[in-house]
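Below is how a single chain appears once it has passed through the pipeline. First comes the sequence as given, then the structure the pipeline wrote out for it. We keep one example in the README because the format questions we get most often are answered faster by looking than by reading.
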Amino acid sequence: MEQKNQPRRTGQKPVPPATMLICSTILGVCLLIAGGSISGSLNKLTAAVKEQTFAYQSVPASAITVNNTAPKNYYNENEAAAYLNISADEIKAAISKGEIDEYIRTSSGYSISQSALDSYFEDKAYALSLENNSDEG
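Resulting structure:
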């Protein structure tokens, strides 16, 4: 059998095993660092997506803001009753008597501003204090 002599390539030397081990270790550490960085970025991205998803869900009437100013709260008659610690029937009676004059009639009931409820409460408290003072005298 005839052997063919292949010319030896110049400039290429075999890589020693110790050098190969060091290079592989460095490459492995770099991959671990990159993986950790990508994992952290994915966690941040997931959290941001969850925040955005929940931010665009329906907002209750009590969390409405006007022109990005301080929130102006609105309540339905049941929420208004809970806010003032009275019954919903008393809220409806106050609306029909005109004691609460700032409201909107909706298909499901009423939408009443918190400021109107605060005014109603202050008026009732003042009337009660006058009544108590007249009873004492």
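The CA atoms of residues 100 and 120 lie 6 Å apart.

See the next section for the split statistics.
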